[in-house]
Amino acid sequence: MKKKRGGQKKRRGMCLLLILSMIVLALSGCSKKKETKTEKPPTKKIEVEKPEPVEEVPEEPEEEKIPENQNLLTGLADLTDAAIGKRPVAVMVNNIPAAMPQYGVEKADIIFEIPVEGDQTRFMALYADYTTVPQICAIRSCRYYFPALSQGFDAFYVNWGIDDSIADYLEALNLDQYDGIYNAGGLFGRDMERRNQGYALEHTGYFDGTKFAEVVQNTGKRTDLADDKKGTAFQFNGLNEQVKPSEDVCKKVSIDFGAQSATLVYDEASNTYKKEIDGNAQIDGKTGNQLAFTNVFVLETTISVKDDLGHKAVDWDGWEDSMGYYISNGAKQKIHWSKEENNELSRLTFYDESGNEISINRGKSYIAFNYPNQTTYE
Questions:
Q1: Where in the sequence does UniProt note compositional bias of the Acidic residues kind (predicted)?
Q2: pLDDT score for 52
Q3: What 3-state class would DSSP assign to 281?
Q4: Which of 52, 59, 216, 321 has its CA 20 to 30 A from that of 273?
Q5: Mean pLDDT, range 130-158, rounded to an integer
Q6: How does strand 303-305 pair with strand 280-281?
Q7: Which of 11-25, 127-141, 143-157, 310-324 has the least mean pLDDT?
Q8: Is it the case that residue 9 has pLDDT exceeding 90?
Q9: Residue 161 CB-density burial (10 A; 0-12 exposed, 13-18 middle, 19+ buried)
Q10: pLDDT higher for 64 or 109?
Q11: Are 339 and 316 contacting, i.e. CB atoms less than 8 angstroms apart?
């Protein structure tokens, strides 16, 4: 019996061993299955169409916004609110050496210089802002070609005395005129300080521009610009542009009027032409500053003597072939100039040699009318 039980144990042990072996084999097979890698099918490359490039349209530059208080004579933004859309003032000023220095002239926006009797010259100074005109000395008499030019700006006209032979002409122009002889509104007087310094009486007359706006308003004169004068006096370059009119360098302009001369010398620091009279700096007697201009015009024209007193006849309206030069920013340009024939109310206009109106730099202007071939440019 004992022998039989031992055999059973042995068989049981073998069976157990066999079962364990099978379990081990089974586990081993499972492990191998887990380690088997499944190959992925090849990926198909999908091509995506690229969008066609969109052409960039350049932005249009913003339209330059002109300030409401633009000065119509200079293009600068310096008018007081009360002067926007209002008429300028033209003032006749003595310009012979014995009357130097003048005062109140530095503030002028445009100065015309034209010969009178004996080939001495006279100023007509224009002020765009009728509310800020200064005291001006020395005031002088009218010659017909000055209001013929001032009318093109729709300006009030200020003088002290006239050439009697033109009284009918001035009346026909229907000027809003203020004459020191009649001292309208108490606007005129004699500078006694200058008189005490030895100036001749004719060089002491002043116009008190500080009172002018009040007088004009109280007398009911028209202050609004005429409809056809509400644009700028000239065609201006852009607000922030400083353009050379050409490549023809010009740093000095020397004008021989006959009995006296004007010289304008370019100052690079201020980008202006500083004025001299007979070789001396022409200064404002109140400010002490030398007269300076962004733009210089020399307009050649016919000038002759018209009577025994030496009064001049001046061709003030020009023609298509009237010659001149525009000088600015260190350079000069040959131009033509004209107003409409026999039309005092028309604009003074400047053209290039192709007949196109030129644009000028913004700033003060000096305009000389002179005999042909009596000006040098360096």
A1: 54-65
A2: 61
A3: strand
A4: 321
A5: 98
A6: unpaired
A7: 11-25
A8: no
A9: middle
A10: 109
A11: yes
- Confidence band (pLDDT; 50, 70, 90) for 5? very low
Helix (H) or strand (E) holding 5: helix 2-35
Two structure tokens written together for 164 = 């009697």
Per-residue pLDDT band for 53 (boundaries 50, 70, 90) equals low
Inter-CA distances, 27 with 11, 15, 24, Å: 24, 18, 5
* Cα–Cα dist 115/219, whole Å: 34
CA dihedral 289, 258, 123, 94 (to 10 degrees): 80
pTM for this predicted structure: 0.84
* Chain position carrying tokens 């009119």: 245
Quote the pLDDT of residue 281: 98
- What is the per-residue pLDDT across 187-228, written as a single tens digit (0 to 9) for each? 999 999 999 999 999 999 999 999 999 999 999 999 999 999
Contact (Cβ atoms closer than 8 angstroms) between residue 110 and residue 75: no
Question: What's the pLDDT score for residue 226?
Answer: 97
Q: Is it the case that residue 142 has pLDDT exceeding 80? A: yes
Angle formed at CA 109 by CA 263 and CA 113, multiple of 5 degrees: 40
May I ask the CATH architecture of the domain 81-377?
3-Layer(bba) Sandwich (3.50)
Q: Is the pLDDT of residue 15 over 60?
A: no
- Give me 253's structure tokens: 């302009």
**CA gyration radius, the chain:** 44
Decide: residue 243, CB within 10 A, 0-12 exposed, 13-18 middle, 19+ buried.
middle
DSSP string, 322-364: EEEEEEETTEEEEEEEE--TT-TTSPPEEE-TTSPBPPB-SS-
CA of 22: how far to CAs of 7, 18, 31, 32, 35, in Å? 23, 6, 14, 15, 20
CA distance 192 to 29: 131
CA distance 264 to 277: 9
Q: Are 137 and 117 in contact (CB under 8 A)?
A: no
**Residue pair 286/103 in contact by the 8 Å Cβ criterion:** yes
DSSP state of 302: -
